[in-house]
User: Fold this.
Amino acid sequence: MNDMTNFTKIKDIGEFGLIRRIGELTSHSLPSGFTGIGDDCAIIPGSLGAQYAVSTDLLVEGVHFVKSEIGGRDLGYKSLAVNLSDLAAAGATPCGAFLSLALPEDTDVEFVDEFSKGFDEISKAYGCPLLGGDTTGSKSGIVVNVCVIGHRGKNATVSRSGSKPGDIICVTGALGDSGAGLEYVLNPALERDEIAVELIKRHHRPVPRVEEGKFLAQRPEAHSMMDISDGVASDLPHILERSSVSAEVELENLPVSDLLQNKYGSQPSKLYHYALHGGEDYELLLTVDSRYYADLSAGFEKKFGKPLCAIGRIVAGDECKARYIENGFGMMPGGAPWSHFC
Ligand code: ADP
Ligand code: MG
Assistant:
């Protein structure tokens, strides 16, 4: 008998145990060229080698956002932004989006108007029109689901599963701002200076790295890629597991913004905590063939005006674990990874 049946509550098996279980109970072999559960996007083959990338994300009041803090406009913006980030991870160009809303009956129409304006703002900026959706009532809080569809050329094959020992682990931008902003959202009594206001903005208005993803996904030396939604400490293991490798990450190399540096520069453990565990930065995390890293990074910097930050390397080891190093010494930074269920 499968020992998973001993558990009765989803908090016992966690989000990924639950997804695995759903996948096992519904599995059937996929047609050639399809990719299903396990990556940022599912891939559906089109004609002439083109591929469609599809992804969906839920935002639930009280779990993913505090309504009074985020407001309608930023919620609309963020709902699409986090989905576009999954298309970015697959190197796909957005085609369109579907929006489903479950709303308590006493929700102000103005809130939904503002939501629609925020959604429209990012939809126009990224060329991702709203194509449909569903609307219903809710007995407890707002639930937002967005599904996005994108397309990519036949040369873009990047997924979470191609990393090889020796690869350089990179990120496309600063980490930790969003997590530091969340701290203020969850603790309204904390005094908010100008930096705090900016950090909260980073949390409510993430920038999906769609152009960066398209650029990187076309390069065969980019072996694996995903977006950082839960923090490097939670997300890197997905690449490691899908690729059957391990990793070493140098904490001093984690890029942080000037904002975070100004606020917590004298407390390195706090900086490392936000950069590794903060989550919701929606930068891209990728591993690159070390022989071509310098070239790729130079090309990336020329196009995007910022470096491709190397934070560590992939090593052999099918235990699929990351070892964190500070000043040459191995250590395990504290802080529990993000979980929706405990
Ligand atoms: P992301 O953070 O990139 O949105 P998730 O961590 O939410 O990805 O999901 C990981 C993988 O599990 C994805 O491939 C996603 O499509 C799949 N997945 C998540 N929830 C379910 C579900 N309820 N049924 C089927 N697949 C799911
Ligand atoms: Mg993702």
Remarks:
- The longest strand covers residues 93-103.
- The radius of gyration is 20 Å.
- Residues 40, 86, 89, 226-227, 229 surround magnesium ion (ligand 2) (CB under 6 Å).
